[in-house]
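User: quick one, sequence for these tokens?
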């Protein structure tokens, strides 16, 4: 909000549908949306807990669906074109050890984005995903701080490094902009080549 004084931050638990509906229902108007909230609770498949599954589904999938519904309805009511970018992951397309829930929620997000693109396209609303590799956020550092674990992943990335926040931000800005005016239902890989290795 310091960089863009016109932005009004809202702090809420996206898993709380009623609070989200109330907060976003009175916000707007919207032309752009980036769904970036996510959690990664890493557990081996045989040890996945119901709590981890429910929380991950709430944040990584249900919240995206709900927020997008609220914003898209407002865009349609205003009759203006819009763009939505959902932040997914390379993990939506490649199995990773201890990531059963995370990989699954991101795969679901990719397919949700395609359906959204198909249904919202006639309203001139584009929907895409960015699918980064590990990004050096706080969450990325927590889950990939073990040098042995991170070295194994980096060795599979042809560019030889994890992504920085700006790598993902620049891809999102492209998908929000008119420079991608004919792009919808697509997944933009920001993975340093991980999926081709």
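Assistant:
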């Amino acid at each position: 909000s310091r960089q863009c004084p016109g932005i009004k931050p809202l702090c809420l638990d996206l898993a709380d549908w009623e609070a989200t509906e109330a907060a976003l229902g009175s916000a707007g108007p919207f032309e752009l949306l980036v769904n970036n909230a996510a959690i990664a609770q890493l557990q081996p498949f045989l040890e996945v807990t119901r709590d981890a599954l429910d929380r991950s589904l709430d944040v990584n999938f249900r919240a995206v669906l709900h927020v997008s519904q609220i914003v898209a309805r407002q865009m349609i009511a205003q009759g203006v074109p819009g763009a939505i970018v959902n932040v997914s992951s390379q993990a939506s397309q490649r199995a990773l050890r201890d990531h059963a829930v995370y990989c699954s929620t991101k795969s679901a997000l990719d397919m949700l984005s395609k359906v959204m693109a198909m249904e919202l396209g006639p309203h001139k609303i584009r929907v895409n995903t960015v699918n980064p590799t590990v990004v050096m956020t706080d969450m990325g550092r927590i889950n990939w701080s073990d040098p042995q674990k991170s070295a194994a992943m980096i060795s599979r990335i042809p560019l030889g490094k994890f992504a920085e926040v700006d790598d993902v931000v620049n891809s999102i800005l492209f998908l929000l902009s008119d420079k991608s005016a004919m792009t919808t239902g697509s997944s933009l890989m920001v993975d340093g080549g991980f999926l081709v290795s």
